[in-house]
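Why should sequence recovery work at all? Because a backbone constrains its sequence more than one might expect. Tight turns favour small or flexible residues, buried strands favour hydrophobic ones, and helices have their own preferences. The token representation captures these environments compactly. In the example below, the structure is given first.
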């Protein structure tokens, strides 16, 4: 259970001065109901249920420190968790062992995850363990139903009416708030999207903001992807170097079966437009839907365990590994997108 530290009052005042307010306490595709761990009434929204969970400091699966807090970004409260060595947190947070100064560049990067509709992966925090010199970050969607790209109403499939605003909020959180919380290398920031989070990442964040993260960035898209829904900024520079992997399953949701291949083709075209050869594109952009499972069931057993399997293999998939994932019956999940755009589903 997370605990609230008395020192959080100081942190509240600090971020208030910065325009990012600390608040108390507190998947496109099928919605997965997160386990809030508390009794709620039928009238409460998932957002209200999530707010019942305390924030504070806890310990990650690898023994590193997790800080769970909320900042107001662009007038919207964004709850987030960040996991890393205690020494990387800034002294302003009063995390025990914090030794970094605000806005100081660190030696470790970030892996920022956007959960699927309903928020399950926010609560599970599958990328919490430090991996490949990346600290884990997970952000909770600022919507009633915990949907990325859709702040009001029930899930509406691939439609993400608030994708632009949510992508901007995530970008501003990373660029403006996180440097006050933890020391990290801003040129080594990767992203992970799950289902609805993957739709918002690929449809809105990648085209609009990936250019701000230099030539050492990448995006892992699990069980969901969209073609760019907005203009692509600096496409030639970004997609000449950005690492992108699309991971799906054989029994993917019907509405995603055409959307994912379309996204694969669209991002491949951006890399080709940047002048890359087929071989160069194949090294940067890869795709797999080998697992004989349902939506996000990459281990062919379950939604949560499937996502955790891929998260545990992030470095092996995204940072120069061989792409061999124990639990997936494939020689490697790193199949080049060139010539493999038209995924065949069961």
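From this structural description, the recovered sequence reads:
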């Amino acid at each position: 259970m997370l605990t609230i530290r008395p020192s959080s009052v100081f942190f509240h005042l600090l971020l208030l001065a910065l325009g990012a307010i600390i608040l108390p306490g507190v998947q496109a595709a099928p919605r997965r109901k997160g386990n809030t761990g508390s009794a709620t009434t039928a009238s409460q929204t998932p957002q209200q249920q999530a707010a019942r969970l305390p924030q504070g400091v806890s310990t990650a699966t690898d023994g590193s420190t997790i800080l769970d807090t909320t900042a107001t970004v662009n007038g919207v409260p964004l709850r987030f968790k960040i996991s890393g060595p205690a020494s990387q947190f800034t002294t302003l947070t009063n995390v025990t062992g914090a030794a970094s100064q605000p806005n100081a560049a660190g030696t470790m990067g970030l892996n920022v995850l956007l959960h699927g509709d309903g928020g399950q992966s926010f609560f599970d925090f599958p990328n919490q363990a430090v991996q490949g010199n990346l600290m884990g970050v997970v952000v909770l969607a600022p919507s009633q139903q915990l949907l990325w790209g859709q702040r009001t109403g029930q899930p509406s499939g691939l439609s993400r009416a608030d994708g632009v605003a949510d992508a901007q909020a995530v970008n501003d959180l990373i660029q403006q708030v996180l440097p006050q919380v933890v020391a990290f290398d801003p040129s080594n920031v990767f992203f992970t999207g799950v289902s609805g989070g993957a739709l918002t990442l690929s449809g809105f964040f990648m085209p609009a903001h990936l250019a701000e993260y230099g030539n050492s960035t990448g995006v892992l898209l699990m069980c969901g992807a969209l073609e760019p829904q907005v203009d692509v900024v600096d496409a030639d520079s970004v997609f000449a170097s950005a690492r992108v992997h699309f991971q799906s399953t054989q029994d993917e949701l019907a509405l995603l079966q055409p959307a994912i291949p379309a996204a694969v083709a669209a991002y491949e075209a951006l890399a080709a437009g940047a002048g890359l050869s087929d071989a160069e594109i194949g090294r940067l952009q890869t795709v797999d839907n080998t697992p004989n499972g349902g939506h996000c069931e990459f281990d062919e057993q379950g939604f949560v365990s499937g996502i955790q399997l891929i998260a545990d293999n992030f470095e092996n998939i995204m940072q120069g590994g061989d792409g061999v994932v124990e639990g997936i019956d494939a020689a490697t999940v790193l199949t080049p997108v060139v010539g493999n755009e038209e995924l065949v589903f069961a």
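A few observations help interpret the result. The longest helix spans residues 163-181.
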